[in-house]
Design brief:
The protein is mainly alpha-helical. It has twelve helices and four strands, in the order ββαααααβαααβαααα.
């Protein structure tokens, strides 16, 4: 699997950042912050034209994976309203055992379901996914973004497994979304841009996560793994670091799988 993309001006520098107008890949030395995302040197010199609506991409063009993820969540939520018993029984993740209700499959199906009774749950999560996804996906590419999203989702479940009471049921995309928050923070730091606002946003959301009924454990898990994944992607951008990037992603994934298996074995021993 080759994830390599290089700067069009500096072919020896690997990067995941692309110009929001022309799609050419640019390194940190060539990237200029725009209204949304980053601009190459040529397009950065013509900001008046860039800011006109005629030159702006639609979200579907700029971040198709993000839009598809949002669509899946919305369609599942609609199905929940039509068939609440069926969808709940298939999708709720009872993290903490190796039964069908706590299987690894439930980890991912639960990440695409939301509370039947609280419309704000899916609205807030999908808004956050849209905002973060339409910035991050063009920066790092579709495949990297998808890897980041699912790693954070998996880590959110692991956070629940180790930190929440046994048998806790969780639903929602918030674990993955916290992973995206951490990733955006890491990329801002890597690009030497102001990250102060993201620290505040993450801090506020972490505090709000301690409101009763919210699985803060999933937030913490997604945040840690999303940050670790983004660190690998952000600091292995050079062409000669391609293998190191793949190794880093593999290490993060193996560690998470190991934690999942270890946590489930501990729970199984307690239950028996």
């Amino acid at each position: 699997m080759d994830l390599t993309t290089v700067c069009y001006k500096h072919p020896d520098r690997e990067t995941g950042v692309s110009c929001q107008r022309c799609d050419r890949y640019i390194c940190t030395d060539c990237a200029t912050p725009g209204a949304v995302g980053f601009l190459c040197p040529e397009d950065a010199g013509d900001r008046v034209k860039i800011h006109r609506p005629a030159f702006q991409k639609s979200p579907l063009q700029a971040a198709p994976v993000t839009i598809v993820l949002i669509a899946i969540n919305v369609l599942v939520y609609i199905a929940q309203q039509i068939y609440p018993t069926l969808i709940d029984s298939l999708a709720y993740a009872n993290i903490g055992s190796n039964t069908s209700y706590g299987s690894i499959i439930r980890v991912f199906t639960s990440g695409f379901t939301h509370s039947n009774t609280q419309l704000t749950h899916i609205l807030f999560n999908m808004y956050s996914l849209f905002v973060l996804g339409t910035v991050l996906e063009p920066m790092i590419g579709k495949l990297r973004f998808l890897i980041l999203y699912f790693i954070a989702m998996f880590a959110g479940a692991i956070g629940v497994l180790f930190l929440a009471p046994f048998g806790t049921s969780v639903v929602g995309a918030s674990g993955a979304i916290f992973g995206l928050m951490a990733a955006y923070l890491i990329f801002l730091r890597a690009l030497k841009l102001n990250a102060g606002q993201m620290y505040v946003i993450i801090g506020i959301n972490l505090v709000l996560g301690f409101i009763p009924g919210i699985a803060w454990q999933a937030h913490v898990g997604g945040l840690v793994a999303g940050g670790a994944t983004a660190f690998v992607l952000a600091y292995t951008r050079k062409r000669e670091q391609k293998n190191l990037q793949l190794i880093g992603l593999a290490v993060v994934s193996i560690v998470l799988i190991g934690l999942w298996l270890f946590g489930n074995s501990m729970v199984s021993a307690i239950v028996q």
